[in-house]
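Q: What residues go here?
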């Protein structure tokens, strides 16, 4: 093995074994998105309680949307490339692997494309990769979808962008209509 390949193998070995909190802190620095670090750490706390996890669902105390629902929506949005990528298949689990997974609770069908065009959703089970995706999704929620507060982004993480925008808009209209005392 050549020296650069050896260094890459050693780096991957280190990154793939980091605990979710350490992975999140390092990822925030590596990708230059430290401003979202606290939000990403809050997701680690609420989604995985700080441990590396795979697919969420069985045993969770939260009722979750099925992976197949995310998978179909990901195909419709062009994020999952059925027929173009060997990894973008439903799988033997009925597409459950395309639902919520990883230490940060990413919806795989909406997230894995951030790592590349043809990536297996299980990549999100690696805390460092989950952290990179989370940080970039938080930035997109702010820039692309106009969710400028941490509360708005957290709401979008839980209920989706459309529902978060509707709820935020309804709240702002209620505040505007409130009588001034």
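A:
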């Amino acid at each position: 093995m050549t020296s650069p390949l050896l260094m890459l193998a050693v780096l991957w070995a280190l990154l793939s074994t980091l605990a979710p909190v350490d992975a999140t802190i390092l990822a925030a620095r590596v990708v230059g998105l430290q401003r979202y670090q606290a939000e990403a750490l809050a997701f680690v706390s609420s989604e995985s309680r700080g441990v590396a996890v795979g697919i969420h669902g069985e045993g969770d105390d939260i009722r979750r949307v099925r992976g197949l629902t995310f998978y179909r929506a990901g195909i419709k949005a062009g994020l999952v490339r059925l027929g173009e990528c060997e990894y973008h298949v439903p799988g033997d689990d009925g597409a459950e692997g395309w639902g919520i997974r990883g230490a940060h609770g990413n919806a795989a069908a909406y997230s894995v494309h951030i790592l590349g065009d043809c990536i297996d959703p299980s990549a999100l089970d690696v805390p460092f990769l989950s952290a990179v995706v989370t940080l970039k999704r938080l930035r997109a929620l702010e820039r692309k979808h106009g969710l400028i507060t941490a509360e708005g982004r957290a709401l979008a993480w839980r209920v989706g962008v459309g529902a978060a925008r509707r709820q935020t808009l309804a709240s702002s209209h209620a505040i505007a209509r409130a009588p001034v005392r």
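A: Context that may help when evaluating the design: Residues 18-144 form one domain. The chain has two domains: 18-144, 148-181.
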